[in-house]
Specification:
This protein is α/β, with parallel strands linked by helices. The chain is built from twelve helices and 17 strands. Bound molecules: L-homoserine.
Length: 392
């Protein structure tokens, strides 16, 4: 039996508007948006003002509404809305990765206590159905890795700068296309990728990490010399989120990677994302699709809403078996690091240096570092230098 879904929607930005359209275009769902609550009364919107309210209680206190779809970008306000919706026994669908990453276990406990579902496929990888696959399909196989490109904005910037565009223009385009966060620092400094990795790790390995545990380094400090180094070697630059488990050791971090043509992510361009799942029996499998933008993200929200027709909820079975898994940053990485002078690169506490170059106003080193030794540094703020992980 299908449940009739009466939706209260919070937010009518890029994805909210997209959801409104896709819901109207898809006639397969028995679901209606009864009310939309937005913050600003003064914005021009694509549909009539009769659809909107500015009072969150018009959804939260409405007994007829059984599903709350939360698509606002303020993580704190979203947490209040989602917590209250769950407490009032409404199912929740959200795309808010920051809110989820900062409050995952609290929200899961609330959903469980109130016997309602909290679904968030759209929070990672846009249109890619990765969370439900990790939950259901990879329920039996033992996973050893979940890694890839999970931020459309930075992948768009890296692709476009590779074609010769400058960084600022590419970022402005990613914003205009609806890919970037309202605060694009979250994209370019890899916070968004880290929140998404935290969610992937929860569903792949059952472990809840806190955002502070995961090292994140983005792409804002890349210089023309670094791009030249990469192109001379035939590398492309991608921002990778990596969650890897070897026996009972779990590693998770986000950093730029120089990759070669044989890497499956080499041709994943623009706002496309890709996630590779590594498992004991099925080996490596690649998921790829549009990771940002109104309709791709709305399609994942729609899929969650659709799943609620049949009372779907995540079961978190892997979380029952995590006591022996230890999170660590103790991993050796082969990296390239460039800066204006060699002394600036001492920050890396090199275990081994392979190549050393010193020019007039540019120097670089390649070699081995341990993530544990550098993870206390916020490299996003070290504007003079840039580093990327090299192919194995
Ligand atoms: N800013 C995000 C990105 C939106 O660029 O991937 C989708 O989560």
């Amino acid at each position: 039996m299908r449940n009739k879904l009466n939706i209260g929607l919070f937010g009518f930005g890029c994805v909210g508007n997209g959801l409104f359209d896709v819901l109207n275009k898809s006639n397969l769902l028995d679901a209606t948006i009864s009310k939309i609550v937005v913050k600003s009364p003064n914005k021009t919107r694509s549909i009539g003002s009769e659809h909107f309210s500015f009072d969150k209680n018009e959804i939260l206190h409405n007994e007829e509404i059984n599903v709350v779809v939360e698509l606002i970008d303020d993580a704190k306000a979203a947490f209040e809305i989602v917590s209250e919706a769950l407490s009032r026994k409404k199912h929740v669908v959200t795309a808010n990765k920051k809110m989820l990453a900062e409050n995952l276990d609290t929200l899961l406990a609330l959903a469980k206590e109130n016997k309602v579902s909290l679904l968030y496929e759209a929070s990672v990888g846009g249109s890619i159905p990765i969370i439900r696959n990790l939950e259901e399909y990879y329920n039996n196989d033992s996973l050893s890795g979940v890694l890839g490109i999970v931020n459309g904005t930075t992948n768009y910037i890296l692709t476009q700068t590779n074609y010769g565009k400058d960084y600022e223009t590419a970022l402005a385009e990613a914003t205009a296309l609806g890919f970037a966060e309202s605060d694009p620092t979250l994209d370019v400094d890899a916070y968004d990728s880290k929140y998404k990795l935290l969610i992937l790790i929860k569903h792949a390995f059952g472990v809840t990490l806190s955002p502070e545990q995961i090292f994140n380094y983005g792409i804002r400090n890349i210089k023309p010399q670094d791009v030249r180094y990469a192109s001379e070697k035939g590398y492309r630059l991608k921002l990778f989120s990596r969650g890897e488990k070897v026996e009972n050791k779990l590693v998770g971090f986000v950093a730029p990677h120089f990759i070669t043509e044989d890497n499956v992510a080499y041709n994943v361009n623009n706002e496309f994302n890709s996630v590779t799942v590594e498992a004991m029996f099925s080996d490596k499998q690649l998921f790829q699709g549009k990771g940002a933008g109104a309709y791709p993200t709305a399609s994942a929200v729609l899929s969650d809403v659709s799943a609620l027709q049949f009372d779907y909820s995540y079961e978190y079975k892997k979380s029952n078996n995590t006591e022996n898994i230890n999170f660590t940053n103790d991993i050796n990485l082969k990296i390239y690091a460039g800066a204006s002078n060699l002394a600036a690169l001492d920050i890396f506490q090199w275990i081994e240096k392979e190549e050393i170059f010193q020019g007039k106003d540019y120097a670089y080193v390649t070699g081995i570092v341990n993530l544990k030794n550098i993870s206390g540094v916020d490299f996003n703020k070290e504007h003079d230098l840039f580093f990327a992980v090299l192919p194995e």
